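sanity check this fold:
=====
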Amino acid sequence: MSAAAVERSHDRPLIAEADRIMERLPGYRVEIIGDQIIVSPPPDGHHGDVLTDLMAPFMAAGLHGAESRLIQNIGLWLPTGPEDFAIPDVSLVDADFADHYIENNCYDPVCFRMVLEVTSSNFRTDLRTKVGAYAEAKVPVYVIVDRKHERLHVLTEPAGSEYASHRVHAPGETVALPDSLGAKITLDVGEIIRTGRNQGR
């Protein structure tokens, strides 16, 4: 993380420890959610392949342009604890996201339109822990590719520590994401699941 976070280590003990873990374990993702440090191993190749396929329709629809940006691994500052932050696999953010910088390479959730996670071995974090964290941050849309159970989750309407709408889609379905993202995006669940198969179980 940033040198500034290390300089503030006397009043940010969890962030300082997260920085130490990242130094010891290059390639691991380190997040703090609910005052707990969560360490995730590097994902496999199928995880990255799914992400590339998922980003394509957003790019084709013009969502990586003047109004919004599609960014991998951007830090999202969370309201769940004084040092909490998450690093979604992909986020759709307002183009002026840089104006919403908070600290520790993280940005205010107000500029996030959507977060997307592709599960790996730590699938429970994406399916449980992050649901509450992203809802409390009022991220409007949370999409999860659940590779273990071969499902696509679309969560909308954050309310407190949960989403009022949580739809689960199976292969064979085509899913239209909310128009609030800024363009019409449809996802073929079967294609996404096939790309992510074989690993992450």
Observations:
- The longest helix spans residues 45-60.
- The mean pLDDT is 92.
